[in-house]
């Protein structure tokens, strides 16, 4: 198996406290041995083993590849007009999703696959090595199954979100749409997906509908995740924890009981600051969640409506500036936190046996990701052991 030694790393984030200092397990003057698709050795440069080839990190920082655990990237079209209207004072409404549904239904398979590939590559260039993505802009049996098939050709983390909004075709009979989502649509979609999701919100699905949808998905072997408490207070977070969801996403409007539920359960609180940025909404309070003991992940929510960014560094900068996270906490949330939200132990850390997913920064420390917002600091990316950027 070919091996490469990445050496002269000034500051290495391992996310393993046993390997270095603090919760990030920081190692100074470090080296990493990549063998095939895996990490084979991590330690000080002075003790590094021999390898077939060497890569000089030139005194810069190396971090685990970002794990973006929430995006909506099987879509067509654009919502520039809606963004313009919002920036002139209009509020964000879930109904804007219908614009993208119409464009997505009209697009060919090739167009959808090319658009997805373009955004995945854009994210990769910014250090993202694992990407979850969802359906939810088809809302018919055929269009949802098609979205998931296309997604599954480009990532293994695929989520069935037939319950994004009630399909416009069922506007007069939402109950019949829930029957479809939990019946024929689930049947057609489950083979392509690992996860099931629902947008639990006023104007989308209420608590009872969300419970029925996630329960049906579980019975089909899908693991639940939930869009919860984004635009208003609601039952989503506590329902997610009760049903064993891997993640409750958004968590913008939380009661003390919601925070307690997240702190005491296994459900990760995934915060999506790109959405609050782009909808001019209040920031989720990461500090409150962390102080209560909840596990927090950061993700982009990349979608053409509420958060059209694929940049994890941008989300880190927002989380540090406006959500009460330290740069260390934000880096952890964007890597190890995302891995937790996807129930993965092979990614989000730089430890022996983990997948060799790493990003080299044009900076001496990961802190620069928040300290130098908007600056393209990702110099090189290894994915599955191969230099990809
Ligand atoms: O996560 N909240 C629901 N879904 C997306 C928005 C999708 C859209 O506006 O197209 C979100 O923000
Ligand atoms: Fe979302």
TrEMBL record:
Annotated GO MF terms: imidazolonepropionase activity; iron ion binding; zinc ion binding
Domain of life: Bacteria
Annotated Fe(3+) binding sites: 70, 72, 227, 301
Catalytic activities: 4-imidazolone-5-propanoate + H2O = N-formimidoyl-L-glutamate
Binding sites annotated in the UniProt record for 4-imidazolone-5-propanoate: 79, 137, 164, 230, 306
Main location: cytoplasm
UniProt record, GO biological process: L-histidine catabolic process to glutamate and formamide
Cofactors, names only: Zn(2+); Fe(3+)
Subcellular location, record wording: Cytoplasm
Residue ranges of domain Amidohydrolase-related in the record: 248-363
Keywords, in A-Z order: Cytoplasm, Histidine metabolism, Hydrolase, Iron, Metal-binding, Zinc
Residues involved in Zn(2+) binding: 70, 72, 227, 301
EC number: 3.5.2.7
UniProt family annotation: Belongs to the metallo-dependent hydrolases superfamily. HutI family.
Entry-linked NCBIfam families: hutI
Name of the protein: Imidazolonepropionase
Originating gene: hutI
